[in-house]
Write a structure and sequence with these properties.
Chains A, B: InterPro entries: CinA, CinA-like_C, CinA_C, Competence-induced_CinA, MoaB/Mog-like_dom_sf, MoaB/Mog_dom. Two copies of one chain form a homodimer. Chain A is elongated, with a radius of gyration of 27 Å. Chain A has 412 residues and is α/β, with parallel strands linked by helices. Helices cover 40% and strands 25% of the residues of chain A.
Chain lengths: 412, 412
């Protein structure tokens, strides 16, 4: 049985455009994965009349309303009080909520600020939704034909509470649905229009829906199906998609490019060292995001200056003079140098012009050279990336990681 | 005179969370800069009943409604037809719209696809809003006390139409407004409740509104005022706030911590070199975000292993043995070592346990030591940060940059 659901996000920084409302999309995504569609979503500011009006309106129209924000300890946090007013209930000190807040601080050997007590003032006849990750308990109440769930605005806390406490209650009310199953294949090296073009003339198994998303510079290919035969259908669709898009698929589901490169290095028992110039440490940061990086990574050099390239990587002064730091020759020397210095199996180097300054007619902004050395074979190539500084740095970082992934793939 | 404004975005990919609704935030930002506040914003899918219901509801409640999406030539593009139905008007072929669409294609020496004619079918008594950048003309109509503006979903086209055609009409209706002016002071080192607590008992100048935002680990303090005396009022409020929150204010407006540190280093004519272990290159990446970093930064070491700490930074093996890599002694040695190796004015080192593994009772996950050396004076301190791996790394990175900022501040 499907439910009539709305999502309401509150906060001045959301309505005035300052901050992106990521909570609403997250909620819609999680509900969607379980077979539920959201009918409408709304955003209002920290304005009493707007919040009250939205709560009353939605409670009258919908079966489930999920509200985020306004549960904090500051004066701008109005949700509980307004919910009480909107639904004609008294605002009372909820003992269970107060106990949870106290326990949260005690567990961390921290003092509870008196302001945090405000977070235990909830509408009469609310049920607490425990917050494992923060101070603000959420709460739920039933009004007319509607179940309203009030969650914190902090994304990690909101998601945890939604999955652990709200979803089961929703599922109980709806008697379960046919969860939507989804496979996400992540692609690097093809533009979205190009990926879409490749799917023209392809017939996916009946019952499998196709959608695309973009997370620059990656394209996400999403395959969805529901019902009992969802899994075998998606298996077939996934095989078909991989055949179509090889070798551009670098990850699936929640995997990341850096995470997969790290995993493949660990599995292969190989180590890598990095020499970064224009990317300034971004690649090292990405490779060390996941725990266990010390299995394959023991050092990286951010050689932003020519002197550093010479000192740490033994790039010869002649090369730095001509053809210069942004060249195939320099990238190669950097890759060999870091590999040798670190004693690692692989050496990866990135040198380029991130902009907006530093470009020339021969080497415009966006010119980046990558080099990869394994002691026996070497690979070096120049690119011309476009866009602004951060976009060029991000593109160069991802391309460098993709080089490593493809190298490791070729060894399998 | 202020106006009662709502924004409505339509599209399945928006309501199901696949795509971020950036149009609504853009609109709110542009309107905000001109002194207008949005009362509420809504998102619905490509569902007739939902779109119709939202249009009727908002037209009855608001003075201005801005609608984005659904003006394209495909079958999913329903907006014009549903607006006609919602407001009881016939859908008619609008000659001016058709002429504009034809002219758009002619100008580009392209054929008009017959599908594009659908884009000229608009509700009776609509006024065209010309689209300089795409095929779909927008349109506006007056219903009850409400002016509705229907804009394309393509962001570039939407923004252009909003600024060129919608804003002047809104300003005409409102007789102009007093643009809202805002100052944002960014704070590091105090929690949001603590910042709020400090404002208790403070009286800001009349007419200045105060709001808070959080962007972990930073707190944003926002001061707002409108009208002719906005600027002097905000000047006074800003002085008062800075006095209250010194020395925790690290930036204002769009400035960032890393950006300000870079600027201060450049102004002081000082250079810095980094030795990062658990932060894996994040600090170097932050410092090189803005152009011109080569003025103060020439190298950083990501010494993830003990061997690298010894090789590149000359950290003595005895220290790596005992008290170990995560210690005051090691952090100090790293800071001295990178400073000496790089020949920079300042050496900054970070070594710690980002987790989730690697902790012990004496040195739990989150234990991080920072050290800063300028050749004459040294500073070293241990912290216990909490949270997950990425949160610990982010906190350590920001604290390290804050150390440099405060050091540079003390020299002014």
């Amino acid at each position: 049985m499907s439910l009539n659901i709305a999502v309401l996000a509150t906060g001045d920084e959301l309505i005035n455009g300052e901050m992106a409302d990521t909570n609403t999309s997250r909620i819609a995504g999680i509900l969607g994965a379980h077979g539920y569609t959201v009918g409408e979503s709304r955003v209002v500011g920290d304005v009493e009349e707007e919040i009250e009006s939205a709560l009353c309106d939605l409670a009258g129209k919908r079966e489930v309303v999920i509200v985020t924000g306004g549960l904090g300890p500051t004066e701008d946090d109005l949700t509980a009080r307004i919910a009480a007013k909107a639904f004609g209930r008294r605002l009372v000190l909820n003992d269970e909520a107060l106990a949870q807040i106290r326990a949260f601080f005690a567990k961390r050997n921290m003092e509870m600020n008196p302001r945090n007590e405000k977070q235990a003032l909830l509408p009469l006849k609310s049920t607490i939704l425990g917050n494992r990750l923060g101070t603000a308990p959420g709460f739920t109440l039933h009004q007319q034909n509607c179940d309203l769930f009030f969650l914190p605005g902090v994304p990690k806390e909101m998601v945890d509470m939604l999955e652990q406490q709200v979803l089961p209650r929703i599922q109980q009310r709806s008697g379960g649905t046919a969860p939507l199953q989804e496979r996400i294949l992540k692609v690097f090296g093809l533009s979205e229009p190009r990926v879409e073009e490749l799917f023209d003339g392809q017939t996916l198994p009946t019952g499998v829906a196709l959608a695309f998303g973009v997370d620059f510079p990656f394209v996400h290919v999403k395959l969805r199906a529901s019902g009992e035969s969802a899994e075998p259908l998606l298996d077939r669709a996934e095989v078909q998609t991989r055949q179509l898009l090889e070798p551009y698929v670098f990850a699936n589901g929640q995997e990341t490019l850096a995470g997969n490169v790290g995993r493949m290095l660990t599995d292969a028992g190989l180590t890598i060292a990095l020499a970064e110039s224009c990317t300034g440490g971004i690649v090292a940061g990405m490779l060390t995001e996941l725990p266990g990086a010390s299995a394959f990574f023991e050092r990286g050099a951010v050689t932003y200056s020519n002197t550093a390239k010479h000192d740490w990587l033994q790039v010869p002064p002649e090369i730095l003079q001509n053809p210069g730091a942004v060249s195939e020759a320099c990238a190669l020397a950097m890759a060999r140098g870091i590999r040798s210095t670190a004693g690692s199996d692989l050496g990866l180097a990135i040198t380029g012009i991130a902009g907006p300054d530093g470009g020339s007619p021969e080497k415009p902004v966006g010119t980046v050279f990558l080099a990869l050395s394994d002691g026996q074979n070497e690979q070096v190539k120049g690119y011309r990336f476009s866009g602004e500084r951060d976009r060029i740095r991000r593109m160069a970082s991802c391309m460098a990681l993709e080089w490593v992934r493809r190298y490791l793939n070729s060894r399998l």
